[in-house]
Design brief:
CATH architecture of the largest domain: Up-down Bundle
Number of helices: 8
Strand order of the largest sheet: 4-5-6-7
Number of strands: 7
Number of domains: 2
Radius of gyration: 37 Å
Strand content: 5-15%
Helix content: 55-70%
């Protein structure tokens, strides 16, 4: 009898167990979530992004409403009139076509298109800000995750050291006080680990709030460019950033509002036509061309124009302000990134030197050139150096993605 075989498949989705027919028997959860995994989950979860999408639909409605201003209006009218015992019936199709209204319809259409573009840019920026928030939470959690790994590794090293000290004590080469000092450090490490776990839990709650997913472990597979330099054409990069470009669209809309307000000075020309299906006068149709010329409106139009101009000037000032603010954000983010990069390199060299010192102290201890306290001090220095290096590594990645978001760029 031929034995059936069960197939194991290891993929990015985790470990899957398949039957001979290809049916999934069981699926193991993935080893952890990457940064982009968390971001994709956050995009589905974020109410802010959802609201921005709704605002795009609203802008499309505004644009369609503005476009209706240049199209004819068609309606059907049926009238029954009773007067002194007489009854009159009139039925007609009514056509009304605006011919000229001071170009305000075209300005409204252009403003509606600009409004939609503004909402699209705001949605893009909301996604970028969400990515920055996810990256910050991701690397906070990852730092504590790696911090616990280091502390537990040191704890295992100390546990092994207890076994070694017990053997040396039986040979009369170590004292009981040396064993007690190691046990005390293990207990202190227990307290340190619990403290870090508390911080990790806070970071996990933030990440789960953003993603809507239970997070247990993270995988950092997203590379960064350590050689990233700011372009000489930084002004261009600023202008292309979605929030800056969105405020430019707001400025364009406010300029269109000036055109709409000025339309109050111009005559309005409308062509009206009626197609009668039933009339007491037996007429089939009539056409009327009406021209309304504004002569005096008590300064209403002048006030509207002045108000629209002021709002346009305010929009221009806000646009210029966000340009300068964005430039400042980019420069500040680059300064933090560059400084963190230099600090990482310094801590890397320090970690290599401290690791070498610890290895030498262990060798010297084996031949009784140093005592246990010297080795423990070297181990504590190594522990602190590893934790500092982990912290600066994760901080560097946070600052890198903050810089990329400041530039308006995400993966």
């Amino acid at each position: 009898m031929k034995n059936d075989k069960i197939i194991l498949i290891l993929s990015t989705a985790g470990l899957m167990v398949l039957s001979p027919g290809g049916t999934v028997i069981s699926a193991q959860e993935p080893a952890g979530y990457t940064l982009l995994d968390c971001y994709r989950l956050a995009l589905k979860q974020s109410e802010t992004v959802a609201v921005r999408r709704e605002l795009i639909d609203e802008a499309e409605g505004i644009m369609k409403e503005a476009f209706s201003g240049i199209l004819p209006n068609v309606s059907y009218s049926h009238t029954e009139t009773w007067q002194d015992g007489d009854q009159k019936t009139e039925s007609r199709f009514v056509f009304s076509q605006p011919l000229f209204r001071g170009f305000k319809e075209f300005a409204a259409i252009a403003g509606g298109h600009s409004k939609k573009e503004q909402r699209l840019l705001e949605l893009e920026r909301a996604k970028q800000i969400l990515f920055r928030d996810v990256a910050d939470a991701f690397y906070f959690y990852l730092q504590y995750q790696q911090d616990i790994d280091v502390l537990e590794s040191i704890q295992m090293t100390l546990t092994d050291r207890i076994d070694e000290l017990k053997k040396r004590e039986s040979l009369g080469r170590s004292r009981q006080s040396e064993l007690a000092s190691v046990e005390a450090r293990i207990s202190r490490l227990d307290a340190d680990i619990e403290g870090v776990r508390t911080q990790q839990e806070v970071a996990r709650q933030l990440l789960e709030f953003l993603t809507g997913q239970t997070i247990e472990r993270l995988i950092d597979d997203q590379p960064i460019d350590n050689d990233l330099k700011l372009s000489e054409s930084l002004k261009e990069a600023v202008d292309q950033r979605p929030d800056v470009a969105a405020l430019k669209e707001v400025w364009v809309q406010s300029q269109k509002q000036v055109t709409i307000a000025r339309a109050g000075y111009y005559p309005e020309v409308v062509l009206d036509a009626n197609q009668y299906t039933k009339s007491e006068t037996d007429k089939d149709w009539d056409v009327a061309l009406s021209v309304d010329v504004p002569l005096f409106q008590g300064g209403e139009t002048a006030g509207q124009v002045r108000q629209a101009k002021s709002q346009a000037n305010q929009s221009q000032l806000r646009y210029e302000e966000i340009q300068r603010t964005a430039l400042l954000e980019i420069n500040n983010a680059y300064s933090r990134f560059s400084s963190s990069l230099r600090r990482q390199e310094a801590l890397r060299k320090a970690l290599e030197a401290i690791q070498k010192n610890y290895d030498l102290q262990q060798e010297d201890f084996r031949i009784n050139l140093v005592n246990n306290l010297d080795v423990l001090q070297a181990l504590e220095d190594l522990q602190d150096s590893k934790r500092d290096y982990i912290a600066v590594q994760n901080q560097l990645k946070q600052f890198y993605w903050q810089l990329k978001v400041a530039l308006g760029q995400i993966p």
